[in-house]
Amino acid sequence: MVDTKFLWRNINSFQIFGYRKLIYLNFNREYLFSTMSSKSQPEWHAPENKLPLPTLKLYNSLTRSKVDFIPKNGKQITWYNCGPTVYDSSHIGHARLYVTIDILRRVLTDYFNYDILFVMNITDIDDKIILRARQNYLFNNFKSETNSLTQELIEQVKAALNDFAQTKLGVANNRSALNLAPSKEDPKYLLYANTLRETVKVVASAECSLEDNDVSQEAAHQLLTGSKDVVSSWLDKEKGHTVTDQKVFRDLAAYWEQDFMKDMELLNVRPCDILTRVSEYVPEIVEYVKRIIENGYGYVVDGSVYFDTQEFDAKKTHNYAKLQPWSAGNEGLIEEGEGSLGSQLLGKKNKSDFALWKKSKPGEPSWESPWGPGRPGWHIECSVMASEILGENMDIHSGGIDLAFPHHDNELAQSEAYHECEQWVNYFVHVGHLHVEGQKMSKSLKNFITIQQALENYTPRQLRLCFLLHQWDSKLDFKESSMSEVKSIESILNNFFINTKALLNEHKHSVYESDGTHRYRNPEREIISLLREKQVAIHTALCDSINTPAAMSELMELINKTNIYLSNGRNNINVYVLENVAKYATKMLRIFGVIGNSALEEIGFRVSEQQKVGNTEDIVLPYLRILSGFRDNIREFARQKKDYSEFLVLSDKLRDVDLVELGVSLDDQEDGKALVKLVDKNELIKVREAKLRAQAEKAARKEEIAKAKEEERRKRLEKGKLAAEDMFKNVKGEDQENAYSAFDEQGIPTLDGQGQELPKNRIKKLKKEWEAQKKLHTEYLAWVANNNESTNTE
């Protein structure tokens, strides 16, 4: 009988040793396979998903609800984000918008693994840019041409003041404006009123300088600098039409675009995939407007082109103001959307109609078009640039909630009119408002915070954590108490990562040692179980319209409970369990952009002072010098046979001074072995300085208490200056109650002032007083002697 199993297992061996023929002589190969095929594998049971996960939903402004997120092309997403109008410094509201959009983009890319084409525009043609550029240009020329302080110059500034009062505040002159009560209807009133008041003070100061015969250029420039807003507005009104060089407008936009990009880089906002500028798409804008007219939704009036909202809304396939239909008739919002230079755009068929193309007036940039020299309207730019790159439909369009109407509603209308489609955008994502300490941010309220100002008080990481802790589509109140909470969370995270990395680095040196204990017990099971539970909870939160506050809450609960586990001590923890938690926390924080572009295997926040690139000598020598110096001191102390306490002082200096300068923290543990941590040098110095301040304050309080006690003792001892033998003899005669006429040999009274014998209980009381004074006098004499001895010694 042929042992087929043996032959099958060893067939290759037989072939190797040249026994193939032998095999075929002993059994038929077909017989072998037929015998084996009669043996079937056991049934395989398909696993059951006991924990089905939710699908991603996004809050869609087009439905004002959370809806399933379904990209039109599998895992690919097309996304257009409204960029900034670049004419001034970016503020904390911009930070909230662009960091929040960056968080959403990172989550969709790095967590849900979508492939995103992300487009953002720069608005470099706009009424605000035109005004600011023109005013800066005219003011700088006026200032450079002013060489001295004159009465004529002062009168010009006064004329500008009166014009400002009339134009901005609606009063005849600046004197009347100073007496006006604040207007509730115009939120800019306070800003205008404050500007006017400050300018009045500057003018008064200039008049005093002129009276003192100070006609210097410096005095003149102080007047102009202090009244810049008022004078710039006046100059623009008088000479704005003379500015014809388009470079004036482009230079201002280019400057602030660069400033914005620097801010975004500091905030760790990923650059867009494609950046568009309005000034580079004017030919495409002209063609876009032409088709809207051809499709019957636009009309020309005196060189300008308007969008016909009623004609558009009348079509069954179109709807105007999809995002905020209740705002369609809001004339205030409509006028604001047309820009500060749009008030002269006349001839609209309907109040809700808006400019697609604006006829350029003198002093405005212009481009040729079939309707004459002009410039793009505000809303058309995004429609054209997004359509050029993303086509007739996109997955996501995003921006601030303040742009929903009229800007985004007008974008939708003109784009759907151009493409003759029902839906140009599938998901409209709007980031919520930002207030400061409960109020809308405004220069007039003195709560206007630029990004650079915010970064003077908070790190980019802290700002991002703040935005993460608030739902992206809700209002955020930026206040000191919220940032205190953020700093606390950052500290918890940082300490967790530092401790974990220290333990992992320590474990590397003993990874192959074993004491026979596996250290995977109930505490470890609980942490791993918690980790898996939080992974599901965080996924669920992110599927719920990318709910980062909930996700962060789950993550912090995981960290806090792991910290409790860590408190068991290095000998009672499983570093692999700890590493799992740390790696997951790092992964999620990297996805959120809280952790920067560190290596993927790196855990936690990067320790900036330690992440240096250089040759081995540059990196290692600072540590070796400290080690060598410490060794030298130990040897010297040993030769001098110093007391052991001095060795401890030297050891503390190594910990608190020398290693701090290298960003190394030695955390003394209960087992007597320090845990070595790499920490940001600046953070360690701050901690050390805070510790030294606390010690100094404690010492000062102690010294103050000692001085107070010494003063109290001195006052008490001063009472002992009088000898006990004389204490009752100095009582004045007029004090009849305490006057005495006879004393014993110790000076204790025996007769009162009338010669009457004192009662025994009275004598007993006086004796106690005498004994107390005797003791105090003895202490006094010792104190005086001690002070004299100290004085002689000195």
From TrEMBL:
GO BP annotation list: cysteinyl-tRNA aminoacylation
InterPro entries reported in the protein's UniProt record: Cys-tRNA-ligase (IPR015803), Cys-tRNA/MSH_ligase (IPR024909), Rossmann-like_a/b/a_fold (IPR014729), tRNA-synt_1_cat_dom (IPR032678), tRNAsynth_Ia_anticodon-bd (IPR009080)
Gene Ontology CC annotations of this record: cytoplasm
Stretches assigned to coiled coil: 691-727
tRNA synthetases class I catalytic domain mapped to chain residues: 71-487
Cofactor: Zn(2+)
One Pfam family this sequence matches: tRNA-synt_1e
EC number: 6.1.1.16
Keyword Isomerase (UniProt): no
Alphabetical keyword list: Aminoacyl-tRNA synthetase, ATP-binding, Coiled coil, Ligase, Metal-binding, Nucleotide-binding, Protein biosynthesis, Zinc
Example GO molecular function: metal ion binding
Listed transmembrane segments: none
Protein name: cysteine--tRNA ligase
Organism: Rhizophagus clarus
